[in-house]
Amino acid sequence: MATREASHAGSWYEDDAEELSSQLDEFLDRVPATLDDSHLPIPGARVIIAPHAGYSYSGPCAAWAYKALDLRSAKRVFILGPSHTYYLRGCALTTFDKYETPFGDLVVDKATTSELRRTGKFSDMPTRREVDEHSLEMHIPYLWKRLEQTFGNDSSAYPPIVPILVGSASEQEEKSFGQLLSQYLKDPETAWIVSSDFCHWGSRFSYRPEYHEGVIWDLDKPRTQGTKHEVLPVTPDWSEAATDPEDPQIHEVIKVLDQMAMDAVESGAHSQFYKVVKETHNTVCGRHPIGVMMAALESVAKEGPEEGKCKFNFVQYQRSNLVKTRWDFSVSYASAYAVL
């Protein structure tokens, strides 16, 4: 049986099982025992958004989503992540049988991947590209830890996983994939992990919006008319968003842009999120996995869920660095859950 190696173990996270377990326990222990007036895990919180950077950067933020995740009825776990290693249009499925972690291997749900493959809507991930990809792998050890906490030490009782890469897609394509996956979303024994970091700010990401002369504009996106900067259509209330409303710092601009994206996600309207990301050009690397998941949630919501269900609720937001100069850089991390 083909097993995808834990290629980022020993660099992006600990490769020693005992040390990794201790680190994840520490992150999870920092999260309060209750969130939104509910003890954790939150009953019915079968869907989360969590970051995928190295654990020393995003691990503490991801813990908020994972501690909220309700796996008690899970018999299958979908993991949706963006492609960083090759250009992908649409969605792609794993061809591996297992995913390795320092704790042990999680089994791929071959029955579900085969069923999805038969729709003709999915391609296969190239083997080498999948091994190089981190957006899926970074969630496997965290998932193992939470499965261990939920089901005990017998890994044979752990539900199988369905890893899916979500590449570039139009608004309608995201909606189409969301509708396709919504049939699985309705299954109360299926849980979902959506992998995404938020704003990537810096010249290395070709994205450096900052505030100047009453507007936010991006240093790295010249306009076709020959002007120096591309103006982003954002006019926030700086009296609340910035320490100095007359001169907001770059990290405050980043927070405003991320907040716009998170507010759009929490709205539950897939079209609103797509519109905000398109207008602000925010470098949310998992915008397409989030879009597909929102479209699936929206499809299920049309059947009339209870108040407060089928919508994401953000519980944590962090940045790798508080940017103050245009030569600096940072990546934003956010965690959210949705109850079904």
UniProtKB/TrEMBL annotation:
Pfam families reported for this sequence: Memo
Domain of life: Eukaryota
Residue runs in coiled coils: none
HAMAP family in alphabetical order: MEMO1 (MF_00055)
Family: Belongs to the MEMO1 family.
Protein name: Uncharacterized protein
Protein species of origin: Staphylotrichum longicolle
